[in-house]
Design brief:
alpha/beta, binds zinc ion, 327 residues, single chain, globular
């Protein structure tokens, strides 16, 4: 509360501009998921970051304010462990591997000559598999049910007048349930059957990624099945890390050394995952928590990223960074 009043006061007297000009040296990272209009999708609206126009504006802003670097350059900086980083570096990342990363984001990045890293969940690449979150959102958008309760859920999730909020609430209930996702999907589709063929969700193809690599884009692993790694056994963790790396390296002329944790919030990964990353030949890993990376070597398997949301503006972004914590 006090911090918010202080922020407002600083903004009023113009001190927020001073804060912005004094943001610390370090590695900054912004993460995107889907590019496009969330209001028009048949799938999960909550994974949209921004539309093409805003991405273009953001890239112009990033280029002006930061030194945009590739994964190789970030690893290089991490290896200069004991030295303090001089400069404000930026790593642009995309999670999951949606097709719009190629059709919408890639042309903009290419035009601005900036690199970005695409973290792909390899089970979704090169096939028509619909991930569970899009499958549930698609079911709601097709059947338009107004409330839902699965046997493992404590409460009924009710529609409160907002499509996006309802989808978010259903997905949240699914995530905290003790039943496996597959069991819940079956139950949902028994309650609300889907007729006809499921639409093919569009994820990147290996051909798309091969072309992106030719234009200085990086590819990182985001596991194979996009499961919460902290919930898996050690053998399953190793499989997720090695299988995704192997598939990328088999399909692309590219050596994978970076990873982003599925979901990526606190508690979705742990020390044994971090150690497995090191053992499996990864140099660097990103979470999905805000913060400015200052102690790079110490945190090289726990680098922070700011999320880009449909509500993000250049002004809100500056504000977020001006008051962000360093790690
Ligand atoms: Zn993801």
């Amino acid at each position: 509360m006090l911090a918010r009043i202080l922020r407002k006061l600083e903004s009023f007297i113009g001190a927020d501009g001073i804060r912005w000009s004094n943001i610390p040296d370090g590695i900054y990272s912004f993460n995107f998921h889907r590019i496009g209009n969330w209001k028009k999708t048949r799938f999960d609206p909550c994974v949209f970051s921004c539309d093409s126009d805003k991405l273009d504006d953001l890239i112009v802003f990033f280029k002006k304010e930061f030194d945009i670097i590739s994964i190789a350059e970030a690893v290089e900086l991490a290896k200069k462990s004991s030295q303090k980083i001089h400069g404000k570096y930026l790593v642009i990342t995309f999670d999951d591997g949606y097709k719009d990363n190629y059709t919408k984001a890639f042309p903009i990045l290419k035009r601005h000559h900036v690199p970005a890293c695409f973290f792909i969940a390899t089970s979704l690449i090169g096939n028509n598999k619909l991930p569970w979150w899009d499958r549930i959102a698609y079911n709601y958008k097709t059947n338009k049910f107004k409330s839902i309760k699965l046997s493992s859920w404590a409460t009924t999730v009710k529609y409160k007048g907002d499509d996006k909020e309802f989808v978010r609430d259903i997905l949240a209930a699914t995530k905290i349930s003790l039943d496996p996702i597959e069991v819940q999907l079956k139950e949902i589709e028994k309650l609300f059957p889907l007729e006809g063929e499921l639409p093919t969700q569009e994820f990147l193809s290996w051909e798309n990624l091969a072309e992106m690599i030719l234009h200085n884009m990086d590819v990182g692993a985001h596991s194979h099945n996009h499961e919460i790694l902290a919930n898996l056994s050690q053998d399953e963790i190793i499989y997720e890390l090695t299988h995704s790396k192997m598939l990328i390296e088999q399909n692309l002329p590219y050596k994978v050394n970076s990873f982003s944790y599925p979901v990526g919030s606190q508690g979705t990964y742990n020390k044994s995952v971090t150690k497995a990353l090191f053992d499996c030949g990864y140099d660097i890993a990103f979470n999905f928590q805000p913060g400015i990376n200052v102690n790079i070597d110490e945190n090289r398997y726990d680098l922070r990223r700011f999320s880009i949301e449909p509500s993000t503006t250049i002004h809100s972004l500056k504000n977020m960074l001006s008051y962000a914590k360093t790690y």
